[in-house]
Design a protein that fits this description.
The complex is a heterodimer of chains A (402) and B (291).
Chain A (H helix, E strand, L loop, with lengths): L2 E3 L13 E2 L5 E3 L7 H9 L4 E3 L9 H9 L10 H19 L29 H11 L4 H11 L5 H9 L2 H11 L13 H8 L1 H12 L14 H21 L6 H8 L3 H9 L1 H13 L4 H9 L3 H11 L4 H8 L10 H19 L12 H7 L5 H20 L1
Antiparallel strand pairs in A: 1-4, 2-3
Helix pairs in contact in A: 2-3, 3-17, 4-12, 4-15, 5-6, 5-9, 7-19, 8-9, 9-11, 10-11, 10-17, 10-19, 11-16, 12-13, 12-15, 13-14, 15-16, 17-18
Chain B lengths: L18 H15 L8 H14 L5 H10 L3 H12 L10 H21 L4 E7 L5 H14 L7 E8 L2 H9 L1 E2 L9 H7 E4 L2 E4 L1 H4 L2 E5 L5 H5 L4 E6 L8 H14 E9 L13 E5 L2 E5 L2
Parallel strand pairs in B: 1-2, 1-7, 2-6, 7-8
Antiparallel strand pairs in B: 3-5, 4-5, 8-10, 9-10
Helix pairs in contact in B: 1-3, 2-4, 3-4
The chains are: A mainly alpha (402), B alpha/beta (291).
């Protein structure tokens, strides 16, 4: 609970604990609202500060709400679920400010100097397919991916051979075991081997996870002045967790594919960073300067978006179609063959962006398709539950990846 | 003790813009400056303008729209409108690779041709120059390349922008650190002097540059500009729709002398706008030749 120093105390704060003078008199009972006369009284009697009820009327509320409002400029202020999430983000930012977080300045919100980077193709001739062509010619995809893919398609595939393929890749094995032991599954006993993980989680489910996770190592060597890669992956893993939570809440089967679709939903942006670093930095700069979501800035600057690149790349990799479609449609769920499924990843991306505001993410939230939310049939108030489920799972799940 | 949050925050800050008002404001902006604001940006526009509406003591967007259309002072309001819809932050020597390509493959040959003709003059138009970083950068490049010979030349770099506050900043020639983000330190030392509030451009450079208020939607005003050998228009047409892009690019074409070049922003192309120019590919840059 935030403590507000007497000099920062403003009328309107609700106190969580009684305010007591040095000689033991109760000046304001718990739950009471601070008024102007109280502030003067507390000062006069040497009260050093008060314990405020979380989020309510705190010293930083106004600044926090103002800061968060800037990220919500593309959203309908009259949508109940949007308001629920706005409120959540503003409270989260206020809480962080209580513990000493300084809001990023305008200067910090601008991109770094990337003058030394060059694109592989001039924009005049660049299109998503050509960019992906260049990328797949250049870098070879992790071997384990293709072996897994083969195994999944093979009618003679076995649990044992799947376990063998995975365990030969030490880093993949470690990540999968951490995931299996993360709060996503909240298993009663720790899982210590891939064979055990397959038995507990299921063959199809673990294959899907392994396939998605095996692709991550492919994306190394992205210039760090271009984008904070830790923040990028944090957003991706957050989206994965939200997709998993929402898929479960909606009673979906094989929720792992939602997790993996969430994890890889922005894969097209990684290709853009690798192949067209200067153009993508221009798009990022355009997004920041004009308060645009990245996807809108890409459309304006490049004429295509990261979902076009993702679509082309995942097709080249022969990614399972039930995952690919979720990735491709994450900004446009309602035109997917199964809008309800696509809505899950769309909403997960949005929730992850909301959670990111208080974590220092610097880009305006993309538009929310309110029809996608309606499809879930969840009441707006459940957005809070989803957020708190996420909070309880986030840190441990992140540790599987970082 | 119950400590659960008791307040929640409300996203809506002011009165809503109705669909009708949004369409009117959008059409007004498009008619005035050719900037197209699509439906998705409705809340953004509402957000950006509500402060302005409140500041003028108005309660609704309808009131503001009436003011924009009929008030005796309506023209004085336009710069505020432009200010709210365009953001033009830039820096000196932005996109160094493009500038290098321009210098080596366009500027140097053009200077050589002019020398051969004994015509020591060069005219460049910087369209949408914002706070002046681009025209001053071009002037610095010329100062570097011509050296002492610069005295013999009549260089005219014409910077134009729609925003009066940006032009005022350009004319003052004083810049803070952000403008030097992409600037070689040697250039800053050579062509700027520290003053209060930042660094001031040297008169040797600024004397090559002049600034003019210009709306790229004003075809007649563009016709009055002197003909140029090079037109720079970087990260400007991105704000326009196709119809407006065609209109502006055709004005650039008319303004250019034969053999002149149009330079767009790094990620901008003339794809789907015009076939009148021949794209020339240089490492790190594309330039469009009026042949």
């Amino acid at each position: 609970m935030p403590t507000i120093g007497i000099n920062e105390l403003k009328p309107g704060v609700i106190v969580a604990e009684a305010v007591v003078s040095r000689d033991g008199r109760v000046l304001l009972a718990a739950g009471g609202k601070v008024e102007a006369r109280h502030v003067a009284l507390f000062k006069g009697l040497g009260v050093s500060g008060v314990v405020a009820a979380g989020g309510a009327g705190g010293a930083h509320d106004e600044a926090a709400a103002g800061y968060v409002r800037d990220y919500f400029v593309f959203l309908n202020p009259d949508s109940p679920v949007v308001n629920e999430l706005f409120s959540y983000a503003a409270q989260a930012v206020a809480r962080r400010m209580e513990s000493g977080w300084t809001l990023p300045s305008l200067a910090e919100r601008r991109a770094e100097n990337v003058e030394h980077l060059s694109d592989v193709l001039p924009m005049e001739t660049a299109d998503p397919d050509k960019i992906v062509d260049h990328e797949v010619q250049l870098a070879s995809f992790p071997d384990v991916y293709f072996k897994l893919r083969q195994e999944m398609d093979s009618p003679t595939g076995s649990v044992q051979s799947l376990a063998e393929i995975i365990t030969r890749d030490v880093s993949l094995t470690a990540k999968l075991l951490k995931l299996a032991n993360s709060p996503i599954y909240s298993l009663p006993e720790p899982v210590e081997s891939i064979a055990r993980a397959i038995a507990v989680i299921g063959t199809n489910e673990l294959s899907t996870l392994a396939l998605g996770v095996s692709t991550i190592n492919y994306f190394k060597g992205i210039p760090k002045e271009l984008i904070d890669m830790a923040a990028f992956w944090r957003h991706s893993v957050s989206c994965a967790i939200f997709a998993h939570i929402l898929a479960k809440a909606l009673g979906e089967q094989n929720t792992e594919r939602f997790f993996i679709a969430g994890l890889l939903h922005d894969v097209g942006r990684l290709i853009l960073f690798k192949e067209m670093p200067y153009a993508s930095s221009e798009a990022l700069l355009h997004a920041r300067e004009n308060s645009l979501p990245i996807v809108e800035a890409e459309r304006a600057m490049l004429g295509f978006t990261h979902t076009d690149l993702g679509r082309s790349l995942l097709a080249r990799w022969d990614f399972p179609p039930q995952i690919t479609v979720l990735v491709n449609q994450h900004h446009d769920p309602m035109s997917a063959p199964s809008p309800r499924e696509a809505a899950i990843v769309h909403l997960a991306d949005f929730f992850a962006n909301v959670a990111g505001v208080a974590a220092g993410w610097l880009y305006v939230l993309p538009p929310l398709d309110e029809k996608a939310w309606e499809l879930t049939g969840l009441p707006p108030s459940s957005a809070r539950r989803v957020m708190s489920d996420f909070e309880s799972q986030a840190e441990k799940t992140f540790s599987a990846f970082f | 003790m119950n400590t659960s949050p008791v307040t929640s925050f409300l996203l809506r800050k002011a009165s809503a813009i109705s669909d009708e008002e949004f369409i009117q404001l959008r059409d007004f902006i498009y008619a005035k400056c050719g900037i197209w604001i699509d439906e998705k940006r409705k809340y953004l526009i509402q957000n950006r303008f509500e402060g302005r509406v409140a500041k003028l003591g108005m309660k609704t967007f309808t009131e503001y729209l009436k003011f924009l259309q009929y008030d005796a002072n309506r023209d004085k309001e336009l710069p505020f409108v432009f200010e709210l819809i365009t953001t033009n932050e830039t820096s000196f020597f932005r996109d160094q690779k493009q500038l290098d390509a321009f210098t080596d493959h366009i500027l140097m040959p053009v200077l050589a041709q002019q020398r051969a003709k004994n015509r020591f003059e060069l005219s460049i138009w910087s369209a949408g120059c914002s706070s002046g970083e681009e025209p001053y950068t071009l002037a610095m490049i010329l100062a570097e390349k011509l050296g002492p010979e610069l005295r013999k030349w009549r260089i005219s770099i014409q910077g134009c922008d729609i925003s009066l506050p940006m032009l005022a900043k350009a004319k003052s020639g004083v810049y803070s650190d952000y403008a030097f983000k992409t600037t070689p330190e040697a250039m800053r030392r050579k062509y700027f002097t520290p003053v209060e509030g930042g660094f001031k451009i040297s008169p040797a450079v600024s004397s090559m540059v002049s600034f003019q208020h210009l709306n790229l939607n004003d075809a007649a005003a563009m016709k009055r500009l002197p003909k140029s050998q090079v037109v720079f228009c970087r990260n400007v047409i991105i704000y326009f729709d196709t119809a407006m892009r065609k209109k502006v690019v055709s004005a650039f074409y008319d303004n250019l002398q034969p053999g002149g070049y149009l330079i767009l922003g790094h990620s901008e192309t003339l794809h789907g706008i015009t076939m009148a120019f021949a794209p020339k590919f240089f490492p790190g840059a594309v330039a469009y030749l009026k042949s």
